[in-house]
Amino acid sequence: MSDPLDDDRIPPNQVLGHLWVMALVSVALGIVVAGLAIPFAGVLGFAARDVSDSMSNLPQGLETKPLAQASRIVAKDGTPIATLYDENRVNVPLTQVAPVMREAIISIEDYRFYQHGAIDLKGTLRALVTNQAAGETVQGGSSITQQMVKLTLLSQAKTKAEQRAAVEESVARKIKELRYAIAFEQEHSKDWILERYLNLAYFGDGVYGIQAAARHYFSTDAKRLTLGQAALLAGLVKNPVGYDPTRNPNKAFDRRNIVLERMAQLRAIPLDKAKAEAKKPLGLDITANRNGCMFSRAPFFCDYVVNYLLKDPSLGTSVEERKALLQSGGLTIKTTLDPRFQDAADAAVERYVYPTDNAIGGMAMVEPGTGAVRAIAQSRPMGLNTKRGESMINYVVPKEYGGSGGFLPGSTFKPFVLAAAIRQGIPLTTTFNAPPFLDLPQADFANCPGAGNFVGTWPVHNAGGQNAGARNLYTGTAGSINTFYAQLERKTGVCEPWQIANKLGVHVPVHERQPAMVLGTSVTSPLEVAEAYATFAARGVHCDARPVTALLDANKNVVKTYAKDCTQVLPSPVADAVDDVLQGAFKPGGTAYGIPISQPTAGKTGTETKSWATWLTGFTPNLAMSAFIGGVNSAGHPISLNGQSVGGRYISNGSGAGTTGPMWSAAMSAIAQWLPDLDFHKPDSADIKGVLVQVPSVGGMNPDDAQKVLEKAGFNVTISGGQVDSSYPQGTVAYTSPGGGATTGSGDLITIYISDGTPYVKPKPKKTKGGDKPSPTNGGGKPKPGH
């Protein structure tokens, strides 16, 4: 083919175009060769000195800021949860790029890259003339270094004006690019320039850089790219949209083969190999771009992580700065999520609450002693399609992290009053009569100092109008008796339960610090409740809930760690006693009795008035899980669950155990296999009054020794006067009341009876006038008359 510049058949209307070409070439020559006169400069009205002045006014070099890279959120075992990015890029060193990929990109973009300087005059002249003759862009004229400069300027542009300036077709931009290119060539190696170029380049379909492109189009790494794959990717950089193989496979096929042909022409590969490869299909193996939490395996846990980090001032002075760091910093965000627990939570919620139900189901799992959040799940998928039941609101976490206003917790608040009572020294055997209804003067409830007194009365009803009778802290809690707890709160006052709730992570505003608080009148979230109950499980050690353990930069260096933040907020004996009492929920007489458990479990049910929300929060010594189902209509407004169909079940009268219990049980049953079998600490009767303790058997012992054994067990002891019939030796213990093996409250009085050494013999009946009639006896369990 003849050189177009020598072709006398060029139409007159292209003459001016050729002059423009020559002028640009002259500019390039004038810049590179200092002091050389620029031919044809007069055609465009500028001179070499003008160019030289323009060059001298430019900065000597261009600062290369770190490239925007995608950040990854990973589970505690390192498995990926989500990817966050503005530009889907993962930087790799040149050594991690397949040699055939380097050959392909150099062959098609700048075949003399390693031979020329900042500008390839020969290549530029050829490309400009060829393109001018063809009337379109056939060959690239810019060197890889110049292209890298352009990409750098575009990548680092902060405003739209800077973005336009980075791509405008002007001599000024070309001069600026060339000046920067010269500086790069002087300061960096060719390998450094090629590496940055490959990491900067846009490869279409939302992917930047060779590693992201390899992963997206072929589900492989840049270092494993084959000849055909490399040729396809090398061909994309010229026109990433036009040659996008996912949208224009035929054009991508042709472009790939052009690259193969060019590689063969340059003897980078044998001709027969190029022809063989050109016959093969594209061989795409697409890995979808999944940017953000919506595509996460744990969408709402991911959303919680992002919002948690956006509130960390150490990551930036503004939310915008923190967001930019998360989306372009190439971070690895290590989290506390346990994929096994998350899968179990997702399966349970999906099974018992459908996305389009007039209800929300959700649960949170928190590890006692660390605050590590192991799972967050809810029934409405993340999304914008409300007809499919999707939502962008995270109903499981506090409002500042998820946007939900929260739900009324019902009786899940009662353990805070229980903890206050135990801490105040109220015996667990304290008994109140619990009638169906009480109307209590609010002035009886001592408020916090300086806060004033309450006025009026507070009407309290038991669920279903139940007359519960006499109840103590064990049985009143197990049955969740409202009128019992109203009387207990009257004894503790509202101040200390309110303080305890807030210290444990359930945030109750001051204006809601009132008597009805014990029945759950302040909205909260499952995560807050799980965090609070985890404190009981950790023997009074409260740990702030945290979803993140560490941030690593793109080079795997630790940027920041998120250590557990824990404080002893309850004395361990108090927490142990709370655990002891709350185990009653799963025992006969408890509101959660019948829900299967495979290891020691404590907890509390909660049902809000009219069943607007139902709860079950259960915990073992190593996991606290709070589950709830709340009535919410399509507009997001709270409604009663009664009369609704939830998860295919009709709810006539919602309850914590009946409505939410099965969902909680499904998740706990699945994860129990991974929880170590631990038991709760038995509360020390020397520290806690009224702990239910089994009376030791001391029959036959020396009375003084028996008294020491019983007192060590936490009982008060008295020795009865006189002696009773017993087969034990005279002067030893005959028996006690309550007897050995019985269960009673610590601190209760145990009476020791002394043996007379003669076994009790039941007297024979005496005949009386009117028939046989047994005579009164002492029953063998009472002192003989006169003893």
From TrEMBL:
Residues 757-787 are annotated as: Disordered. The keyword Transmembrane helix applies. Residues 778-787 have a biased composition (Gly residues). Residues 682-756 form the PASTA domain. It holds the Pfam family PASTA. InterPro entries: Beta-lactam/transpept-like, Glyco_trans_51, Glycosyltr_51/Transpeptidase, Lysozyme-like_dom_sf, PASTA_dom, PBP_transglycosylase, PCN-bd_Tpept. It is an enzyme of class 2 (transferase). Keywords: Carboxypeptidase, Glycosyltransferase, Hydrolase, Membrane, Multifunctional enzyme, Protease, Transferase, Transmembrane, Transmembrane helix. PANTHER family: BINDING PROTEIN TRANSPEPTIDASE, PUTATIVE-RELATED, PEPTIDOGLYCAN GLYCOSYLTRANSFERASE. This is Transglycosylase domain-containing protein. Its EC number is 2.4.-.-. CDD domains: PASTA_pknB (cd06577).
